[in-house]
Amino acid sequence: NSVVTMADTGNDPLSIPFPRMRWVAMAWLLVWGTSYARVWGWANFLHLCDLAVILTCVGLWQGSRMLISTQAVSSILPALFWDADFAWRLFSGKHLIGGTEYMWDVRFPVGVRLLSLFHVVWPVLLIWALARMKYDRRALHLQTAFAVVVLALSRSLQPEANLNFAWRDPFL
């Protein structure tokens, strides 16, 4: 159950689990990360979903089963909730859960809002990557520890922003 990386594969491009997808992941990080930083600011990268995008892309780049597994543990279900809220708002005009209000906020550039549609393909990408690499059983423990640290940072660095709902529950 060790982490598979390029170093483990001898840097042979044919033995890397995602030889093409790794380049797509890096291109995505460049476009998405630059756009998000410019519009939302650097604190936005304290959102667990945004950190998970970064770690997913690094996991694809390195062929790291551990990184892919940790992000699958924490991201598939929340991304599906995001998708449900977005679709509900798109078709009914009302939010089902909340969390996608910014997608209809004209104060933000439409191109950057459209980049948030990564939530739609992300669960499929993670499941596909897990199917190719297999789940690393250590992922739940590592992701739990990571989330605790991020939530503590979210609570202390920008309490007014309620990043990751660290101060106020989104449902109640």
* Oligomer class: single chain
Ranges with pLDDT <50 over ≥5 residues? Answer: 6-11
User: Can you tell me the overall shape?
Assistant: globular
Average pLDDT metric:
85
What fraction of the residues are assigned to beta strands by DSSP?
A: under 5%
Largest sheet: none
Please report the total strand number as a whole number.
0
Output the helix-strand order. HHHHHH
* Tally of individual helices: 6
What is the helix content?
Answer: 55-70%
Structural class: mainly alpha
**Gyration radius, rounded:** 17 Å
Distance between the termini: 39 Å
Write up what this structure looks like.
The protein is built from 6 helices and no strands. The protein is mainly alpha-helical.
Structure described in brief:
With 172 residues, the chain is mainly alpha-helical. It has six helices and no strands.
For this entry, give a set of tags.
172 residues; mainly alpha
Which helices and strands occur, and which strands form pairs?
Layout: H1 21-40, H2 48-62, H3 65-92, H4 110-115, H5 118-133, H6 139-157
Helix pairs in contact: 1-2, 2-3, 3-5, 3-6
